[in-house]
Amino acid sequence: MSKKWVRVFLVTMLALSVLIVGCGKTTSDSNEIKIGANVELTGNVANYGQQALSGFQLAIKEANAAGGVNGKQITLVVADNKSEASEAANATTKLITQDKVVALFGPVTSSNFIAAYQVAQDNKIPAVTPSATNAKVTVDDSGKVKPYSFRACFTDSFQGTVMATFAADSLKTKTAAIFVDNSSDYSKSLAEVFEKVFTQNGGQVIAREAYLQKDSDFRAALTKLKAVNPDTIFIPGYYEEVGKIVKQARELGIAVPLLGTDGWTDGKLVEIAGADALNNSYYSNHFSVQDKDASAVNFVKAYQAEYGKEPNVFAALGYDSGLMIIDALKRAETAEPQKIRDALEQTQNFQASTGVLSLDANHNPIKTAFILQRQNGEESFKEKINP
After folding, report:
1. What pTM, to 2 d.p., does this model score?
2. Which of 122, 155, 209, 307 is the most buried (most CB within 10 A)?
3. Do residues 57 and 77 touch, judged by C-beta distance below 8 A?
């Protein structure tokens, strides 16, 4: 080979090496920060996912409008998990391996998040759920903390305790029945905690019935519950089934207070159950638009300006999840996933729209719970319960 062709060969190889290095740059070296959103946009709990994503998008939009984070703009990549656990795992794989995101938002429900988390951990990508409340979201069966899992909401243990305490202390109930969704980790966990705490407070759980997601006729089980005449019925579940349960319970003449949790929080609940049926019902929540805290007021105003309507709790928790990731990015001063994870773990006294939160050793926020009620279809604030 002549010297001329040697020079041409070397120049070509050099150019190719530069091209290869350029194509192989990580997201942290570019002018953007890619964050993935793995959310329930279709399927059984689509309203939750859509609302949570709207809040998260608002937080990202505000950060980008303020100049971005560490001099870079945030690019949001969205994947629909179709409200199914297997799809949630597939969506996580796509976001990490194909889209090269450095952090994840969602899924919003416990079963979907738990199914998706292993992929995130295997790839060492931090994930923040706005609303998955099951204990197994952040801690495994052996009690070990899941290192890349974080949440913006309080746990089933806390809200189960809150509702059992509310039933005993505020409503003065002595007996309770539980109607649980046996296909949901969320529902089963809440039922277990409620029964334990309600019993410890001197109450008695006198009946327990079960249903499955996508069931539509609950009359047989409700008739059994009515027969034992409980002072209250605890129904931890999601709005689609809960709405039908409440409607059918009232049609059967069950007039006692009906108790629930944050899964009740969606306007569609009123459409399904009917406004009158929801009278004398109460549920725990992470947020209230009637909260007069400055951060809550500012968030509600910003959300209304962006979307033309009031936010619900999933929008607020989605927004707070965005704030948590943005804050971690700023403190990490890099878009390296491990550094983001470390910064998230150190979140303390952070002002979010739902109040001041600090993450405990299990990556769970310590924060206030709200008790809300429905009267003539309208949601209103009942009381606050501190951790």
Report:
1. 0.78
2. 155
3. no
Using one digit for the tens of pLDDT, what is the confidence trace for 20-42?
333 333 344 578 999 999 999 99
Contact 53, 131 (CB under 8 A): no
CA dist., res. 195 & res. 218, Å (int) = 21
Q: Can you tell me which residue has the tokens 């983001």?
A: 340
Supply φ then ψ for residue 194, to 5 degrees: -55, -50
Structural domains counted in the chain: 2
Distances (CA, A) of 335 to 10, 60, 148, 172: 35, 15, 15, 51
The C-alpha atoms of residue 52 and residue 56 are separated, in whole angstroms, by 6
Tell me the backbone φ, ψ of residue 231, rounded to 5 degrees: -75, -25
Residues 6 or more apart from 370 whose CB is under 8 A from it? 284, 285, 286, 287, 288, 291, 381, 382, 383, 384, 385
| Residue 111 belongs to some domain of the structure | yes
Q: What distance separates the 2 farthest-apart alpha carbons in the chain?
A: 99
Task: Say which DSSP state 139 is in.
Answer: B
Query: Prior bond to 387 cis, omega within 30?
Result: no
Q: Report the distance separating Cα 127 and Cα 118, nearest Å.
A: 11
Provide the CB-side half-sphere exposure for 86 (13 A, CA). Answer: 0
H or E element that contains 281: strand 281-285
Query: Domain of 61?
Result: 32-154+292-367
Whether 46 and 149 map to the same domain: the answer is yes
Using one digit for the tens of pLDDT, what is the confidence trace for 261-306? 988 988 899 999 999 999 999 999 988 888 888 889 999 999 999 9
